[in-house]
Task: inverse folding
């Protein structure tokens, strides 16, 4: 396969915040999947459900590393590698926030036929834990 495919993405993001109630977002959206070296690039438009409307999200899946890139009103790049901590900047209309992402678990089962990606990680801002996240992405190739 050397071209992009239309896919349906089912995203489940469960947040456990340090200082407020747990939260869960379920989103089903259409997107694109294209080959990327030995991996895949998934791309979709955020929705108003996620409070990030007008933001384009790309997920680059390359072996043991997953990179999530958002462009639009919110600009960020988060890198996930099991057992590793990565720093980045989360840029919003209200200013920039320095964040750190620590990945506890990353399981990638995405193929040309679709599959599932699961990432458990914690998010820190200004050196304080703000969120534990269980992220699950299911990819289904559309006919």
Result:
């Amino acid at each position: 396969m050397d071209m992009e495919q239309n896919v349906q993405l089912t995203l489940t993001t469960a947040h456990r915040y340090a200082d407020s109630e747990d939260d869960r977002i379920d989103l089903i959206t259409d997107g694109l999947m294209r080959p990327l070296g030995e991996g895949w690039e998934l791309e979709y438009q955020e929705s108003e459900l996620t409070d990030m409307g007008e933001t384009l999200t790309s997920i680059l899946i390359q072996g043991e590393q997953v990179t999530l890139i958002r462009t639009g009103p919110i600009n960020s790049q988060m890198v996930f590698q099991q057992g590793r901590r990565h720093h980045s900047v989360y840029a919003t209309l209200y200013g920039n926030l320095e964040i750190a992402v620590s990945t506890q678990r990353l399981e990638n089962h995405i193929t040309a036929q679709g599959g599932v990606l699961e990432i458990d990680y914690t998010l820190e801002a200004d050196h304080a834990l703000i969120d534990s996240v269980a992220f699950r992405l299911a990819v289904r190739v559309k006919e």
About this structure: The chain has one domain: 5-141. The mean pLDDT is 90.
